[in-house]
Amino acid sequence: MHISRKLNLALWIVSLCLCSVFAQASDQALADKPVVKDKTEVTGYGFNWHADPDTVRCIKMTPVFVASFKACVHLAKDDSQTGTMKFQCDAGGDKSYLIAETLKQCQDAKDTMAANAP
After folding, report:
1. Contact 109, 82 (CB under 8 A)
2. Which of 19, 35, 97, 117 could form a disulfide with 46 if both were Cys (CB 3.0 to 4.6 A apart)?
3. How far is the CA of 15 from the CAs of 29, 40, 53, 93, 117, in angstroms?
4. DSSP tag of 44
5. Quick one: pLDDT band at residue 83, thresholds 50, 70, 90?
């Protein structure tokens, strides 16, 4: 059992490193996406995809919360694994939110990311 904990820790560290690499690549790819000029159009449900997908929750995007984002971009259907994410918003630091129209779409996307996590 002690070996299992060490293995889990090693896998967790590797997954954090991989997430960091993919996040940087994804953030660079966002430079080509259309920027949201009016943040009031950013609605729906989202989650911080830089967080642990097993513990992060989908939350409703309120106008006050969305106003705190540094920038948001529109996503096309082929920009996410599920094709249901409408926006990606940079909240600063290590927080970046993927936002879907419905709670179910958000939950499905989060579950897909969790299932595909290293």
Report:
1. yes
2. 97
3. 21, 34, 11, 19, 7
4. S
5. confident
The Cα 82–Cα 80 span in angstroms is 5
Task: State the Cα–Cα distance between residues 3 and 95, nearest whole angstrom.
Answer: 32
Residue 79: per-residue pLDDT: 65
Q: How many C-alpha atoms does 33 have within 13 Å on its Cβ side? A: 22
The structure tokens listed for 30 are 């966002």
Neighbours of 63 (CB within 10 A): 10
The counts of H helices and E strands in the chain are 3, 5
Strands (E), the chain: 45-48, 59-60, 71-74, 85-92, 95-100
For 11-32, write each residue's pLDDT tens digit: 444 343 334 434 444 555 556 6
What's the pLDDT band for 53 if we cut at 50, 70, 90?
Answer: confident
Note whether 46 and 95 are within 8 A (CB).
Answer: no
